[in-house]
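Objective 1b of the project was to move from sequence-level analysis to a structural picture of ligand recognition. The entry below was assembled by the postdoctoral researcher (A.K.) and checked by the PI before modelling. It contains the amino acid sequence of the target and the SMILES of the bound compound, molybdenum atom.
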Amino acid sequence: MTSVDDVSRPSRLAEPDEAISVEELQLAARNHGIPLEALRYDVTPAGLHYLLIHYDIPDVDPATHALTVDGAVDRPLTVDLAELRSRPRVTHRVTLECAGNGRALLRPRPVSQPWLVEAVGNAEWTGTPLAPLLRSAGLDPDAVDVVFTGADHGVERGVEQDYRRALPVADALRDEVLLAYEMNGAPLLPQHGAPLRLIVPGWYGMAHVKWLRGITVLTEPFDGYQNAVAYRLRDDADDPGVPVTRIEPRALVRPPGFPDFMSRARVLRPGRCTLDGRAWSGHAPVASVEVTTDGGDTWAPAVLDPPTGGEWAWRRWRFEWTAEPGRHVLGARATDASGRGQPVGQAWNRGGFANNMVQRVEVVVPVE
Ligand SMILES: Nc1nc2c(c(=O)[nH]1)N[C@H]1C(S)=C(S)[C@@H](COP(=O)(O)O)O[C@H]1N2
Ligand SMILES: [Mo]
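Corresponding predicted holo structure:
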């Protein structure tokens, strides 16, 4: 017998001394992160925004593409792109971060897309709000979950499936949730979900379904793979866990100076310099950022620049530093208005999700 099971990998943890494999590298080469120097841009240029594509980029023809709304609704709908474009048009600047960001730094390492800290971007998404479309379909009063289906197809743990993710009805009906057809003022690129994707400001990436082709309203909780199996915070494989939802606060340092090609360790000239970076949270606005230059032993407050993009966009921070000759480990940590912060050590879970451990940027300041 041959089956899809034969080629499918179980979820597993790397052995203590196991290096990143060619399979993990294959994922990393497809799904690139933001080059950290691109933290300089308020709005991440589309080609520098991180990517996460579970299967293949599907072949979708925008001329014939349509979105269906069905399930527990009074009036099932089919709308094409021209119709979606004729509906009210809204633009939100939104920081998108993959829930697996930071995974490859965890010990033990969950084997999957091996992100370090670079699975983030801040783009401008234009589209039409989802809620009025759902309301025009007539939601069943007993509706519980809204399932979003992409046009991409693959295998997870032996089971063939389309990419499908659900949101609880109350979250799907939030004003800021968009059916987006443009990124940074241009039609969506194939890799970012062309011609239509969901944008769920404040939520980790997995909720922002790309190549969106169907919306199905359920009166029972959705039990599909991406909600019931993947994207849960579990202590171990038997733990039912809790769903991954909103983005935990995080600050990143834009690495200063210049890098060594192979190690990417930084070289910085001695003297005064301004360190900067970005900070965000999907729970509440960023309230403060602190910086360490000694690997987390001591912290000092950074200055937050005025917001440049509304409540879902990252914010720039700055910190004046005098770089003395020697080796330094830089990092930054954000605290949001809900009181959530960032641990210096790892917050481990089986899937390596929502881990916002403080970044470590190693810098060598040579004697002049
Ligand atoms: N249809 C579909 N939507 C998807 C995915 C996918 O594989 N298929 N990946 C999700 C994940 S895990 C992330 S982090 C974001 C990444 O969006 P981006 O590639 O535009 O940055 O898309 C989400 N939407
Ligand atoms: Mo993701």
